[in-house]
Model the fold of this input.
Amino acid sequence: MSKRTEEHKQDSQYRQAKKQGYRARSAFKLFEIQKRFNIFKRTYYILDLGSAPGSWLQVSKKLATENIDKYKDGFYHRDHFRILGVDIKKISSIDDIHFIKMDFTLPEFFDQVKSFFNGPKIDLIISDASIKKSGNKFSDQINQIRLCNSTLRFLDLLKYKGNFVIKIFEGEDYKHFLNQLKKKFQNVKAFKPQTSYKKSNEVYLIGLRKK
Ligand SMILES: C[S@@+](CC[C@H](N)C(=O)[O-])C[C@H]1O[C@@H](n2cnc3c(N)ncnc32)[C@H](O)[C@@H]1O
Done:
């Protein structure tokens, strides 16, 4: 795809996202992941790491409440789902979603998550968190892996058979991280959404059914 066609595609995806009320085109990445892996099936407690500006939170709310409609005879109550988002940047609020402006690598955030979900009860953890890219692919990849490693502690709060989605950059240490996930999940898949930039080395790892 030429640079111009790629830019045109990105522009039109951005406009489409805005038109549908989503804050970013990344919303479509999560929809693609859902379509392929059905990670939101019977999912009510969700943790979103690196949430700003909030489109994954919007999508999570939509898909979690659809579950409630489907599985609870249309009875909808906000206590049936709990969604927590975190980012170092602030976001404008979303009804029924709890957001904490904080660095999620800090140990005190783990305690906040634990008390929010009242123990290891999370159905789904999603992380679209990215480091600020420097342009140096090698150091960016190392820093992204470091960030990914810091998300692994939250898997202690994911319930048995819970699912996990994480953005990673392909390169050094990718295999090692993938192998760590393979130890923790019954199945691990790598997925590159069509919405991702073609030249980007980002890939999403999907951990299915925690062991
Ligand atoms: C690609 S954006 C997420 C987009 C989001 N999924 C959406 O759909 O709106 C990546 C985010 O990760 C956040 N981030 C990176 N490191 C973080 C950290 N240690 N703690 C909290 N947020 C972090 C960045 O501030 C940035 O907003």
Remarks:
- Residues 23-24, 26-27, 50-56, 86-89, 103-105, 128-130, 147 surround S-adenosylmethionine (CB under 6 Å).
- The CA atoms of residues 2 and 8 lie 10 Å apart.
- The beta strands are 45-49, 82-87, 98-101, 122-127, 158-169, 185-191, 202-210.
